[in-house]
Fold:
Amino acid sequence: MASALINGLISNGYPSTEILVSDPNEDAKNSLSEQHHIQCMSDNKSAVRIADLIILAVKPQILKEVASELSKVIQIQKVVVSIAAGVSISALQNWFGKNIPIVRSMPNTPTMLGLGATGMYANRHVTAEKCSLVERIFNTVGYSCWLDSEKDIDSVTAVSGSSPAYFFFIFEIMQRVAEDFGLSPRAAKNLILRTAKGSVEMALNSDSEVSELRRQVTSPKGTTEQAIASLQSGNLDQLIHQAMKAALKRAQELSEEYGQ
Structure:
């Protein structure tokens, strides 16, 4: 995710000389340096002393350890942006200090292609200017939006953070069925993925609601109508609701687990 953000910034004209990465892993550090031609170091505290905005692209399991180390050198004019799932702003404030400006964010994996979707929430210490800066950063790798409440981060996890896997799972099922119908694996995969891509582009470029776009494709007594009727009789909407609710529940559990 860090590499995706760096690539997005540079691709959108941000000077590589103003990007600094700290990573204790020598191979990862060298790879980032060679790939993006940016300054890299192994000392987190030295990096934080230099930076104006700090993005914590680390696993939630080790974030407390990293934050506790950085709290010794961080200053209140710095802005801390966390992409760690489940770690609350309250926990980050306990580790960094109560007055530190903090933004929680939840990007998803298409960020790596510049097609990500990110939900963000800032504590009251983040100025409008800094919010704008954080938004610009995430907009370089896709779409971003500010959330009304921190608890909405858990909803974003279920809605966009986990949903690439939902779509991949549906594609898997469709491909198996297409192959059962006699199509080659290559033809099945390409037909399904190209159709999915085209459908998304249609939805993004249309003023109509997706429900209306569906109706436009569903001719009375046609093949699509039969397929939709079968999906509805199998309670697909209920299954999707249950799946997303399960993801939301797990996100809330992680918030309790890592949020202390």
Observations:
- The beta strands are 20-22, 39-41, 53-56, 79-82, 102-106, 116-122, 142-146.
- The chain is about 55% helix and 10% strand.
- Residues 236-258 form the longest helix (23 residues).
